Amino acid sequence: MEPSTTVGCLWFIVIAFMFFAQHHVCDCYFVPAINVFVGKMKASSNTWLQRWGNEAVAGATICALGCNGPEMFTNLISLYTGSDAGIGVVVGSEIFNLLIIVGLT
Length: 105
Hints:
The protein is mainly α. It contains four helices and no strands. The protein has one domain. It is found in: Membrane.
């Protein structure tokens, strides 16, 4: 095999493993955590908290925070520390991510 074919096969195996690892972590940890969260919110006497007792609402909200939370806080830190990252890159990437995620779902 040529080096480019070998590298391509290796990348495919690594990416396939990463997808499997992400599936395993979400299945073993993320879904049970959402189920515990939903159970506690349903049991709450507060009507505002009971809205979070819906699995779809809790899953979508927690998933969105999990996906965009680290990037959002990194962008905020880079803004306040005077980093070289421009405000257009910081705000633009976050807006793009949120709009694409909402648009695709």
